Structure formats: structure tokens, C-alpha cells
Amino acid sequence: MIDLLLLLGTDFASGTKLARQLGVSRVAVWKRIRRLREMGYPVEVHPRRGYRFVEGAPAPRVLAERLRRPVGTFRYLGMSTSTQDELRVWAAQGAPSGAVLVAEGQTAGRGRRGRRWQSSLGKGLYCSVLLRELPVARLPLLGLAAGVALAEATGIGRLKWPNDILGPDGAKIGGVLMEAQTNGGEALVVVLGLGVNLEPADLPDGGAALSRYRRVNRADLLGVFLRRLEHWLARLDRPSEVLAVWGERDVTLGREVRVSTRQGVVDGRAVRITADGTFLVRRMSGETTGIATGDVELVGSMNTI
Ligand code: BTN
Fold first, then answer.
1. Measuring CA to CA, which residue among 293, 302, 206 is closest to residue 256?
2. Is the peptide bond before 162 cis (omega within 30 degrees of 0)?
């Protein structure tokens, strides 16, 4: 099954050719294709031309060609549990740093702070990227850099600390979830998850799909994201560069915000984000509070972003 997944791209391949490549019969190929479709993979079947993934499917072969990387550094799943969990399993089996796992859907997709991430089959981009051996101190900036890369890849993305990607009207279209296994000051394994709503399907309040603003090809979106992520990874030792680009897309800086944290609510004006990823808010009293984790809401003006 895995071999067939690596062979199929978005150009038709005939049953005869696939059978030869896999060393099995054409009937066996057809059975495997049927099984892939049952698993949630969007495989098109044409009586004469053969089989292919639908346009935009983030199949390993398609991504490997675009990014000029070995096909084995990508894994493509149909309906999965959570790409975060599936990538963690692969990491334990030795997946290399930079490995990418993408799925057509998730039954247990999760967002920040234990929230559920709606992941209907074929309606979004659900992907996790593995990074190894990074200083723990760099993780907040890495989260911001991933947000910048994703906003850039969407073309229209605006940003809200710490990891929300918004459309031009302020609706949330995607987000980044970072999970890490650390040992002292080192993050041995970092799993960077990105979720983008591409088509409307059971979206939460305040959510929107990227299709509201532009047409999307999933493989293009993921390819551009991965290239931009690579660009920003090489600049993690220059926080001011990441923060400057973040600032250009940020919707909260200089505006009235309400931040919900585990310790309570902080009201004030968003001042800036520091090199270690802290969100600074100036309260009415004039005191500035630094927030490491929380959810930011713009006060009263969501529609005028
Ligand atoms: C957020 O809360 O805004 C972050 C959402 C991140 C969702 C993605 S979808 C792919 C990956 N797998 C998951 O279970 N979650 C992340």
C-alpha cells in the first residue's frame, strides 16, 4: 500500500504500468486503489487512463518533486487520528528532522489549549512537521515563525498572537500547534502542526475557510509553507527579522485587546511581542504585563481589521 502511495501522483498512471512497477497483477492494483479510496484518499479512476490523485492532493510524489526532496521524507494518510500523534509515532521509529506528515482528515484533530480542531475529510490542510534538537528557548520564536510562514503561504493571511492565521476580515482560517519533548534546555523532538480550513465544513464560530478569499491548491499551499518555514528556520537566531514580518501582518498591535490567560483576564493595549515570544500589554494603569500563553481578542472592532 505504501509503495502505491509513493508511486501515485496527479498525472494518470495506467493499471498495467503500476502493476509492473509493483510486481503484482492489475487486479491486485485495482484492489489496492479501492482500499485507498475507502481509507479517504482522493484517487480518481478512469477506465482507460488509469489512476491518479485529484489535483492538489498533497501526495509524497507531488511534494517531493516540488521541493526537490526525497519522497520518503513525506507521509500521506487518508483519515487519521491526529497528524501530531501519527508523526510522533514516526519520529519514534526514526523519522528525520524535516519529515512531513499530512492527512486528508482527522478524527481527533486538536488545537491549542486542548481544543478540538474540526478536520473533515478533504476540507482542510492537516499537516505536521518534525524538527529535532532545538534549544527550548527558541520554541516561542519558532511558533511565531511558523505562523508567519503559514500566513505568507495563504497569500492573504493576517496574524494574531500566538499562532492564529486570520482572513482579511478577521475570521480565523488556520492555526499552528507546537508540541515538544524536552530534556533540560533542549527540545529533542518538536512537532509543528498546522491546520488550515480550505472549504467550509462545520467551522466553529468566528472561523472561515480560505476559499472565502481565494482558490487554493493544497499541494501548492503546503509546498510554499514548507519553503517559507525553511527560510525562517534559518533565521531563528535573528528574532528581529521574524518579528518585523510578523508585525506587518499582526492585527492586534497598537489596539485594545482582552487576553484570557490561565491566571485571569488582562485588558489593555497590545504593545509588542518580544524576542522570546512574550506578548506585552499596557494596562489602563500604565503598567505593562508580559503574557507567555493566552488567547487574544480584539475589543470591539473585529470587522474593521
Ligand atoms: C490552533 O488551535 O489554532 C492550532 C490548530 C492546529 C491544528 C492542526 S491540524 C494538523 C495538526 N494535527 C492536530 O491534531 N492539530 C494540528
1. 302
2. yes
Q: Is residue 142 pLDDT above 90, yes or no?
A: yes
**102's grid cell:** 499530512
Handedness of CA 26, 28, 34, 40 (dihedral sign): negative
Kindly state the cell numbers that stand for 21.
512497477
Rounded distance between C-alpha atoms, residue 217 and residue 170, angstroms: 22
Task: Tell me which residues have their CB closer than 6 angstroms to ligand 1.
Answer: 82-84, 106, 109-112, 115, 117, 126-128, 163-164, 175-177, 193-195
Q: What is the best residue among 117, 126, 163, 191 to mutate for testing ligand 1's pocket, by most ligand atoms within 8 Å of CB?
A: 117
Residues whose CB falls within 8 Å of the CB of residue 256, separated by 6 or more in sequence, listed in order: 267, 268, 269, 298, 299, 300, 301
pLDDT tens digits, one per residue of 239-279: 999 999 999 999 999 999 999 999 999 999 999 999 999 99
